Amino acid sequence: MDFRDTPAEATFRQEVREFIAKEAPKLEPGAEFAGDYAEQFAASQGWFKKLGERRWLVPAWPKEYGGAGMTVTEQFLFNEEMAIARAPRPLHMIIGVGMAGPTIIVHGTEEQKKYFLPRILTGEDIWCQGYSEPEAGSDLASLRTRAVRDGDDYVINGQKIWTSIAHLARWMILLARTDPDAPKHKGITYFLMDMKSPGVETRPLTNMAGGREFSEVFLENVRIPRSNIIGEENRGWYSAVTTLDFERSAIGSAVGMRQSVEDLVRYAREHSTDFTSTLAENAVLRYELADRLVEAEVGRMLSYRIVSLQSKGLIPNYEASIVKLYNMELNQRMARTGMHVLGMYGQLERGSKWAPLRGRIKYSYLRSIGSTIEGGTSEIQRNIVATRGLNLPRGD
Ligand SMILES: Cc1cc2nc3c(=O)[nH]c(=O)nc-3n(C[C@H](O)[C@H](O)[C@H](O)COP(=O)(O)OP(=O)(O)OC[C@H]3O[C@@H](n4cnc5c(N)ncnc54)[C@H](O)[C@@H]3O)c2cc1C
What we know:
Number of strands: 8
Bound molecules: flavin-adenine dinucleotide
Structural class: alpha+beta
Distance between the termini: 40 Å
Helix content: 40-55%
Strand order of the largest sheet: 1-4-5-8
Oligomer: single chain
Largest sheet: 4 strands, mixed
Strand content: 5-15%
Order of helices and strands: HHHHHHEEEEEEEEHHHHHH
């Protein structure tokens, strides 16, 4: 693979860079880590609208669905530039654009595409993902939320948990059991659920970094029309896996990692007098920073592999698990190195005038624990890589 931008890609990159410099809101540095998603979303509405006008919310979606019809590589360049500039990423990009939309494109009916895709693009609808339940996370197929057919509707009863941005979402991609007697992977149906339906109750949870990020969602006699099924009844598992592949490819992206190392190096240089030992005297810290830079480059290469598969029209599978596993564990090491660079100051959080980098490292240190859990834990990714990537036998 030639890692250099083609002339067309270089022009596009420059265009994106200039657009971001001119139009992106100048949020307080570190504001993206403040942990209040509603606040971030409200502050960035105008910016998202400008992105939408350019069709840059979904550069790689086909033009007929409102995208810019760009290549997956251009989309990656775009994401890289957004990360480098620390431009706010629209929340609806994460689940609506990154997971629900692509699943609807692959498995949805024409009516579903016509109705839902434009609303994802404009940001009119924010989406959340109702997969996990109190007793079903890694073993997702054991989920118990029930959907019972009643005329043209299904009636849903059950509970979801850890549902990111459910408190802001208008729609949920929901997995529910339609055939309790079938083998567990075969009795699940994939629904699109209006979060404003009667019987949906969202109770926000606070993550350990203090962010109001996810919720418990209780479903009591919620009616979903039959036309809101994705794919066929009882065959939802297959569409669900498509969504997970999109999710893991996106979560795993290493864009901006190099930037994080450079931020730390700059900080360590500028604040050398705050340290008991400076970078020049502290070989261990120098080596640690060098390791993170090498790893950030490895992560970037792994992300390029995903981009390369996607640009050939393939959906990455165990490759997405490799990249998710590697980059999210790297995320944790990066935050740990950040703590080593900041020393005792690293424990201070946003709000304190002494908090280095506005508490960003402290937030990342705590939040990055969740990144090796969300979208499937590191153990589960290792199982996938072992069985599907290496053809090793399953354990009992
Ligand atoms: C920040 C965050 C955001 C999230 N957002 C969403 C969301 O929007 N929507 C949603 O549906 N879910 C979401 N989740 C839930 C997430 O997908 C689950 O937490 C995850 O899949 C793990 O499930 P669990 O919590 O039930 O843990 P469990 O499955 O109970 O696992 C407990 C431990 O056992 C290990 N383990 C389990 N099975 C195996 C095995 N076969 N082999 C080896 N080890 C194993 C796990 O790795 C883990 O260490 C989110 C989670 C987090 C942390």
